[in-house]
């Protein structure tokens, strides 16, 4: 952090409104923040807390109907509110840079990468085409882009998610801005790519001597990267302090609630869940805005508007936390597994390959090896977690098990029946046993259908019951997932992300299945909403005897949910065993790298991982011979070019040089 006492950026009583048809949303209410040269300020809070509106107000990029209605935005003492559109564009092009949450929607799909990265140079400096291209290649090289001289001629769709995020960072840095704003820059990325991007931002902050505002709902990201933290709730800053002080001793009850909702803080077998919803910012509010959801609320809280107070560590709470908050060293153990010895699901030597590059008139250029010889079982009442980077094949396995795609080879045996040998009618009945819970429930629902029709549809397709019985079943489903019956008359766009995920779970339960494949069901949710959904899934598992195949890239979530964990890399299973063994005594280098890459919600977590991996995932069109991980493995030797055997019995690992012996792991 810079020794200068004068902030580079100062927000004073910043207030922003969003005019909508139904009224005006007061998105920000007297927000005060300082950002010094060379420091990273983390802004954290639930969706709707105002953190993104704060940075969009700074950038002058508010959505239609949005405008700053009060306060100051001072950049080096100059109020950005007083600038006309042309001057503000120049400030954005020179002094401010922004990295948006979704790099694909931030890039022009019709422009080559080099042209997009170099565009600020050509617009604001009049740099020639050839020079701009060379400088684009140089900045892409500095952000760690492989083969930047080739990438400049590619289009966004040709790049992976991590590579696209590097392009967006390069665009923001091409003019060496004094302040970089990163709005949820790693939300859609897996943990290894996320770590690379966050380390890149740290390195570039040092190199460019710039300030950074890091917006995220992930407390682990904040803990490991920010110098100071501002916690926002319902359009206001409710607490601000140095990162170490905030995590060691949070004072506001909302901050405490966010931390207790983390999987690492699970107590008595459950995650803490913040009750209720944030307030409607289009209505007049009085008192503490968190009062309706706070366990320690008093009548005074509902009537007293508490300002930020304190020296260095400021908070707005009448009943602050007085005891230091300690994070649990290990999450609660997963649900108990049924003693039934016959597995509900058995997968043997599962293979899935796709033709690559083929069309109706052109032959395929090769075969993509998406899943290559995967075998596992799931018992009655058991949860198997499948983890790995994007592109490892875990979602493909989920679709194959759910019957959405045919397998190229191998067996999927459900309740003793091989699904590949079933006729069409029997396969249709099999869908009653296995259902899929999608990552994006909104995208999986017809936006023109009411919830009543969405939940009734699978019952109608399977011809289960008459109209009265179906309505009774749908009402029962809503009760099971904690939604009111009036939800049936609403459309998907009228619900929050957490509510939609509850509806998605209800739909997957409609046919009374025995197995649910949950594909990244909480990856896009705030930590508080995530806790609600995970607790609900575990409650229903115990109540209904469900089995889960739980797919995720978040090992802390999988550790909380799963009895056993299977780790996939480039279509192969590289490790499988009891959840606590895999997470706390990993045997495969890739598993250890995934564990080390998970952001820790403790600022004193070791910054340097014990097993770091670099580079991009190899192409499944031409996977490495032998061990597919060997091209990125720090322990690889010549013998790894041959196919490694699956070793062990209880805690299996496919590696010539396992990190630990199985005998060292207590069973």
Give the structure's gist in a few sentences.
Helix content is 30%, strand content 21%.
Characterise the protein shown here.
By secondary structure, the chain is of the alpha/beta class. Helix content is 30%, strand content 21%. The strands form 4 sheets. The chain has a 7-stranded mixed sheet, sandwiched between helices. β15 (409-414) and β16 (417-418) form a beta hairpin. The longest helix is centred in the N-terminal third of the chain and has 18 residues, at 191-208. The protein is globular, with a radius of gyration of 26 Å. 48% of the residues are buried.
Spell out the key features of this protein:
667 residues, alpha/beta, 7-stranded mixed β-sheet, 21 helices, 22 strands, 21% strand
Mean of pLDDT: 88
Helix content: 25-40%
Number of E strands: 22
- Going across the major beta sheet, what is the strand order? 6-7-8-3-9-10-11
Determine the N-to-C terminus distance: 47 Å
Beta-strand content estimate: 15-25%
What structural category arises from helix and sheet content?
alpha/beta
Q: Assign an overall shape.
A: globular
Main beta-sheet strand count, sense and barrel state: 7 strands, mixed
Number of helices: 21
User: Compute the gyration radius: what is it?
Assistant: 26 Å
Secondary-structure map:
Elements: E1 9-20, E2 23-35, E3 40-44, H1 51-59, E4 66-75, E5 78-79, H2 85-94, E6 96-99, H3 103-106, H4 113-124, H5 129-142, H6 148-151, H7 161-173, E7 179-183, H8 191-208, E8 211-216, H9 219-225, E9 228-233, E10 236-242, H10 243-248, H11 253-260, H12 299-303, E11 314-315, E12 345-356, E13 366-378, E14 383-387, H13 394-401, E15 409-414, E16 417-418, H14 424-430, E17 434-437, H15 451-461, H16 467-480, H17 497-509, E18 515-519, H18 527-544, E19 547-552, H19 555-561, E20 564-569, E21 572-578, H20 579-584, H21 589-597, E22 652-653
Parallel strand pairs: 3-8, 3-9, 6-7, 7-8, 14-19, 14-20, 17-18, 18-19
Antiparallel strand pairs: 1-2, 1-4, 4-5, 9-10, 10-11, 12-13, 12-15, 15-16, 20-21, 21-22
Helix pairs in contact: 4-5, 4-7, 5-7, 7-8, 15-16, 16-17, 17-18
